[in-house]
Amino acid sequence: MTEEDDIDGLAAEYVLGSLAPAERGQVDARRETDAPLAAAIAAWERRLGPLSDRVPGVAPPSHLFDDILSRISGQAAQAAGSGEVVGLRRQPRRRFALAVGASALAACLAVVVGWFNYIEPGTPVQGKMDCNGLYKSFWEKRDPQAYAKITPEQLAGMSRMALRAYDACEAGDEQDAKALFERLQRMQY
Hints:
Elements: H1 3-16, H2 21-33, H3 35-54, H4 64-81, H5 92-118, H6 131-141, H7 152-171, H8 174-186
């Protein structure tokens, strides 16, 4: 920041009236001996002068300051004199509902955790087909020597059908999966 910026900013604050009374007195004294400061103050007064000419000055009522002081001192005295402790209102129904809801949520969480710990990963749920076992047993029952006697197209068709049966089983379509695996078992190659 240059000295010109400092002088310009100081002049602006002087003209706007935002300086503290002590600083304003210092600027008044310096203004008489410092020509650049006096010029900056005059420039700011020319710029802002038309604004103050448009609005007439309004003086606050003479009793306003005294009223403000009396209100402030009255509130301070009232706050200092009151030593009464006010208890908070309790809402037992709301707390009870919150406790019941939290307990229900905890119980549900315990059931889910227990369920997943009880059922071992990879074991089929009762009533669901063992898709991996069916697919593996189909290929294990086939005679490896029989593959040499069939064409590559027939082997590819058999593989596709076995994969379709496995996909149907994984999708939960037991009827279609059973029908495809039975059809594969009946195939004679």
